[in-house]
Amino acid sequence: MEHKIGLKFFRKRLGLSQDGMAEKLNCVKTTYQSWENGRREPSVDIIRKLFVLGATVEELFGVKVEAKECLPSRSEFEKQVELALVKIIKQCSKQCTQL
Fold it and tell me: Where are the alpha helices (H) located in 5-75, listed in sequence order?
């Protein structure tokens, strides 16, 4: 995985141990540790659970987004994902034009 998602920061913000976070996500501790350490990527279902627990796109992916960038009539999860993708695409476009 090229970029670790911010699970450790989020877990600490919730005041949970790795065991506690694994329990909240309904997975085993070693699986959670592999996500937190960047050795594996969590599934979309796990990322959805993280959003339900209160994680933000910026916190998990390091992408700052603004609500005005997303389309109307979407669930909160879909808005967060869409905002992250819009931001990532914009960043990639800027990098490509600089090459």
Answer: 7-14, 18-24, 29-36, 44-52, 57-61
